[in-house]
């Protein structure tokens, strides 16, 4: 027994040496084999179990490592293995469990504090996370200080973006592209887009410099690393209204096929927002990227919520009413106080022509959530205006507490609207738009672009003014709408029409922005459409004009002369002294002096003889046998050239010299005809 124990101890010592050597070399798979052999000797060896858990973590087997920890709870207590357990839970996206494990540890080591900061960031507890990283930076001095500062700047950027908190100046030196990128994100959250672009450009430059120093890094690797920076650049372009440039850059990033599913999901979502109700087939393809595995662990709650909102809107645009209602109902159950789910449901009802039901749905929401009643009632008023119920719309607007002490309410029915009523309605519109703008600015610090509801309210105000002949007053609304979407040709046309009454020169300048007829691909064959059977008007084909006529057509102000009728031509043998035949217009058979055709005077009795027979004068008629006839080449398609001036009498018109002679001639004809080879 003593010898066996000594042998086991020696074997274990050799295995531990192997584990140590493999650990230093980073060969954790081989180290795991040696650790398993040690555990066969002593299954409750705490050090061996800890080494096994570490090897499994290094190999990425977090679930198996957590299983080992939970299996040996008596040996691996929380004091011994707290960090490894919390890390496995964190990597398995069990964030709440990881937080409990960290908090239950008896001693908060530096490793646990680092992990604690990461867990708080994932839980979006940014204030606590900021305090944790500040404590770490203040009390730590090692080679990971730059990484901690990067994480600290990421927390500040998240606060600025999602919580609309004005970030404080941390005094961090932006020496790396990660720090520049986080600083740009914080500026985007504040609405300082131009400054953010400069930071992103600096981040791109630093990234290229940093990665180009490594000879093993290819250009493709650099572009993949720059994808997230370019994604933010495209997002800024989208916020600035440069949707075409943003769309182009988004598609370039997608073609690179980055491995970050979170980045792909955000880009796909942004493309869907650009497409809106157009190009829905492309949107349906892009929405698949937002459903990739692991996306929910890469994005914040607000990002995921925005993606779900856009899915519901896409379902509405593609006429998937049931899917739209299902998604919006799910969103409303998750966030009962949120406006967008109920607005999407109301929009779907309006598409189904159920306006009364939509207004009722909005009224119920306003009653249940008084804090959001103002925005909901503005939408209700908009629906009433769209239906032509201006009075009811003004009554709804009057019920808004922020507007109830302001004048300008309409008191008559829509059919009785007069000038004073229109003025009052326009005043209400103006106050509602100003209130909405101030309300939105107070929430976003004026950084975010106008919301769809705000723009829709401006649209309704402009349409109301145009409908009632107030084009001058609609100019400011139309300019705001066109500024938000310069590609909107309909709004541009309305703006030009309004300016034509006020400033024709301005209208002329704006008309240059209209698309040319060459760029408009209507894909309609006008000629085929006009010449179709169902067309009520068929355009006649214009005759080709001569050079003189073209000059006359091109000349402006010329009066077209009536064409004079030409006199009919007289026959060549016309004798003015002789009275024309009064029956000359009748067919010959119908004339009074017609006696019928005489028999025996048929013209050119050709082909009336026996088959194979020829005339006696055929040799004389053959021009090729006459001495005086010059040799000619036969024309294509003709057998021989026949003289047209021959005076030979045909055989049937010759007088017979006698019976025997006639018989002899007939025999000669037959013989000659036999040689002809018919």
UniProtKB/TrEMBL annotation:
Question: Where does this protein have coiled-coil stretches?
Answer: 95-150
| TPR repeat extents | 227-260
Chain segments carrying region Disordered: 542-678
- Which terms in the Gene Ontology molecular function aspect does this entry carry? 7S RNA binding; ribosome binding
Q: In what residue span(s) does the Signal recognition particle SRP72 subunit RNA-binding domain sit?
A: 540-596
Stretches with biased composition (Low complexity): 607-641
User: Which ranges are annotated Basic and acidic residues under compositional bias?
Assistant: 572-593
Q: Which UniProt keywords apply?
A: Coiled coil, Cytoplasm, Endoplasmic reticulum, Repeat, Ribonucleoprotein, Signal recognition particle, TPR repeat
Lineage: superkingdom = Eukaryota
What GO CC terms are in its UniProt record?
Answer: endoplasmic reticulum; signal recognition particle, endoplasmic reticulum targeting
Per UniProt, subcellular location reads as: Cytoplasm; Endoplasmic reticulum
Renumbered to this chain, the Basic residues biased-composition regions fall at: 560-570, 662-678
Biological-process GO terms, alphabetical = SRP-dependent cotranslational protein targeting to membrane
The family this protein is said to belong to: Belongs to the SRP72 family.
Name this polypeptide is given: Signal recognition particle subunit SRP72
Gene giving rise to this polypeptide: Srp72
